[in-house]
């Protein structure tokens, strides 16, 4: 159009020059737009804006006026000034490269590897755009070498003086390390030239040619339209990648696909299900063990990522079963290919064009990965799923049936680590072996022997002939003690508990281990009760049942306190600690056993102190005493409705000498049906009540007798004469009864004690009132302080481990109080021996 207005110019030469200038400028603008349309990077969008802004200066006028000099442009200087403001696209790109290099230098000054990594990615894109078919900037080579040197210095400092980096810096450093290593190989000639003589390299006129980098061809990752139809599945569908191109799955493209999937992991708007489908197809075309292992490890991680972003949602059932199946396939490949191993800390393979081979002089091809982490995650996801399902539905039973397959997977993982541990050159950490062994034991220690036998038989069917058992540590010992106690091996369980010395260090363990310790302690107490060892059972169960927080200490529920100030984060953590329903210990049965044992010990003691005021009063179970006092204050007492009512009424009957009525109350408790050998338990309780009834009768009515026939007592309590004589002899030897046993006449001769003076009686009364006042104050303090701390951090002053140290004479106790000046550990109870220790010493 400019030729129609050429006559308006004062100089045809200047007009032609101006036309040539703007024609070149428009041509560069068109080329730049064509190049920018093929790029997806945000920094190239900025290039478009900057070019359009510069061109808008010349587009301010419309029509023919844009090619004419304005009225205000009277001199050639204004034209020259306008020409100088125009930059070519190439110059702009070089300027952007320099700005990015400066940003990298700023990141190096403050050691910010996160920003260095992002800026380095940007620099690579800019340099590649300049060097497409032309030249590579020398300043890029210089920046690459300087960044590599700085990276090596940082890594060397970390080795000499280890200092923990934050997560962002660590990720950035690792990303830069991998990228620099790969890019340096592509430009090895230029890098060597720069290092040989920096000045000569930078001053040379000829730019170093860009190395030929292999680009993805349609046969690598994508198919062209002619072969897309052949790649379609049976239903006529194909998988599309970026830009709507059809993805091709071949053994040669597996590593490239995996690289892209790993780089997109954790990014927003990533379709994880689509990635899983792609990896499933890659697994089908994998033709070597290495490729299969790489795909399986990435595939299992992707399945776990489906539930990684939430603490409440559980892993989909079909994905859990698929992950379990993938791990089984992984173990099968490792079993068939002994020269391939999956091990933590192995070096990543960077070359995506060809898979690695076994290096010369080595026995194994190492694949980076952590099998124990996958097994633990699979186990945790099953636990979370069981926690979210109503245990009283058939869905819970169906989900629980997957535990058998999980146990087989854990067992195979344990055998695999033990196989690797035999080779001393691999230096497998013992912690990995212990972790997976512990997972196995946690699935069997609470089960009956018949169920464990089935699990073990199924697990050993596919095990190799040379497989052996693993090593057991602290948690494993607790599991073994629990198992022995569950099967009525009380003395073995007691001896192992005492010899383990876990009671001295349990506060140093994590919360889950302390929960396991509490469960083991309870099971030992229940075992002692089934053996008829009432005193041992009561002292052992006192640790848990006496606290009044059985649910929390056994991780079977969270008790809501009146003054609770638990944060949402603490509440979430406590819920995560809860055990699945099938692992629970019946709390009603536990309370019934504890109260029954307390009754058999407290009722004779109350009778003894009631008839002998001079005897120092002591309390075996404060919890039982409070319940009994509350029950006695009731104006009207109806028929027993629950376990607690049955025990309280049995206690009153036993105290009144009605031992048969007491037996009926105890036998009518329905919870005994949950224990093995119910009839044996009831027979044992009848015998215990008869004996304690005899003791109670003697303590109560001894002041009113001078002599009493053994045969009369035997008839009253339906015991043998020898048994009655043995009980009386034991009471006399322990100085519980002021009497003598005449074996010739088979009679008990009672000795009258000295009557107390009025002053002594008043002093005893004052002592009783002071003790009652102290107990009231302690109870009030306990009520006020409840709920002010975490459920696993609260410890009462009356319990062992409070400010006074408690039973055992130690100030440490459960919560780490007393002499322990360090931070208190959550959960768990100390086991200082108590009745178990006394039983061994006795």
UniProtKB/TrEMBL annotation:
Residues covered by region (Disordered): 1-90, 198-217, 781-842
Example GO molecular function: RNA binding
PCI domain residues: 581-755
A Pfam match: PCI
Alphabetized SUPFAM superfamilies for the sequence: Winged helix' DNA-binding domain
Superkingdom of source: Eukaryota
Subcellular localization(s) per the UniProt record: Cytoplasm
Regions of compositional bias (Gly residues) in chain numbering: 808-821
Family label: Belongs to the eIF-3 subunit C family.
PANTHER family the record matches: EUKARYOTIC TRANSLATION INITATION FACTOR 3, SUBUNIT 8 EIF3S8 -RELATED, EUKARYOTIC TRANSLATION INITIATION FACTOR 3 SUBUNIT C-RELATED
Name the UniProt record assigns to this protein: Eukaryotic translation initiation factor 3 subunit C
UniProt organism field: Apiospora kogelbergensis
